[in-house]
Amino acid sequence: MSRPYNFSAGPAVLPETVLRQAAGELDDWHGSGVSVMEMSHRGRHFTSIAEQAEADFRGLLGVPDDYAVLFLQGGATSQFAMVPLNLMRRGRADYVNTGSWSKKAIAEAQRLGEVNVVATAEADGFTDIPAAETWQRDAEADYLHLTPNETIGGVEFHWVPEDHHGVPLVADMSSCILSRPVDVSRYGLIYAGAQKNIGPAGLTVVVVRRDLLGWTRESTPSMFDYAAHAKAGSMLNTPPTFAWYLSGLVFRWIWDQGGLDAMAARNRNKADKLYRAIDESAYYRNPVAVDCRSRMNVPFVLHDPGMDGRFLAEAEAAGLLNLKGHRSVGGMRASLYNAMPEQGVDALIDFMGDFERRRG
Ligand SMILES: Cc1ncc(COP(=O)(O)O)c(C=O)c1O
To answer: What pLDDT is stored for residue 293 in this prediction?
Structure first.
């Protein structure tokens, strides 16, 4: 029986082959006699799983040797606090405000230091990214934080800000990591909650340049200190072992698909198709400026919002799940992460055309 297509923004669709593999080795991992969930995180079996996952992740993103890769808990939301706790050496940082997730990151950083919002797209309803020339950057900032993909608004940077007096770039890549190649060396720190393109919820991946570590205040609890996690190989305490293992299977799957270049080509193709269908229709609309439309999260509204409930119910009956937009913006949202096959996007486009003909 074929599975429905899951357009959830996160936790999100995982590759079917990964789910099958995990199911096949659930009660006895590679003849060890136990499941991954039951083994010691310090034993040889889990050590091999953890090391392979890190090596595959590093290879996919081309993470340079002078960067640590940390497998943590607490979600990207914890990173909103851990970043300033660890990197605000002088007590001030620059933030770009491109939507709901930027705002949350800003609010947390404001509890810990001085935040300079270098640019905000709030007046446009977060449908655009202010041009870099207009940003009011601080040459003395401890870092510049941005959200390369705003999961709710569907706004994505298709460029990386230029270096500014060596101020490290910090990026919340929760909803775009592994969707395309990234030049990690242009960033001081990258973080991402796993539950979109990496694996199950519960794991948070942090990639950080080692020279930025070790500046936390004495009073910082060790669980919030990157240096402590790096020193302990992300095993300061019991890590989320099953999520780490499953993420490792996803990394292998991405390699099997051809790596991040192949992912980027597939993702561009899927998103282009859907935006084309939206733009060619008078019934559906996407409000985001064309040059900063997200390839991962495509929000759209119906000409008649009174039909939203019917659209969602009929979509679900047609095997197209979780298309409801975020509660803060309404409308629809189709998330097209790596594991969403092109056939899923084709099925959605067909359904949208059919719905428009019948109800539009
Ligand atoms: C861009 C972005 N940042 C942060 C978060 C929050 O992540 P978490 O729920 O893992 O704390 C999300 C969740 O959807 C997100 O999309």
So the answer is: 98
Using alpha carbons, list the distances in angstroms from residue 3 to 7, 9, 21, 251. Answer: 12, 18, 16, 22
pLDDT band at 360 (very low <50, low <70, confident <90, very high): confident
Q: Is the CB of 175 under 6 A from ligand 1?
A: yes
272 conformational bin, left if phi > 0, alpha if psi -120 to 50, beta if neither: alpha
The CA 356 to ligand 1 mean position distance, Å, reads 33
Pocket test for ligand 1, best of 77, 79, 108, 156 (most atoms within 8 A of CB): 77
**Among the options 56, 94, 142, 172, which is catalytic?**
172
Residue 196 catalytic? yes
By most ligand atoms within 8 Å of CB, the mutation choice from 72, 78, 101, 126 for ligand 1 is 101
- pLDDT for the residue numbered 1: 52
Task: Indicate if 94 belongs to the active site.
Answer: no
Ligand 1 pocket member 157 (CB < 6 A): no
Strand partners of residue 208:
68, 189
Condensed to tens digits (0 to 9), the pLDDT of residues 20-77 reads: 999 999 999 999 999 999 999 999 999 999 999 999 999 999 999 999 999 999 999 9
Axis-axis angle for helices 259-279, 44-61 (nearest 10) = 60
172 catalytic, yes or no?
yes
CB–CB of 274/336 below 8 Å? yes
pLDDT in tens, 186-219: 999 999 999 999 999 999 999 999 999 998 988 8
Quick check: bond before 64 cis, omega within 30? no
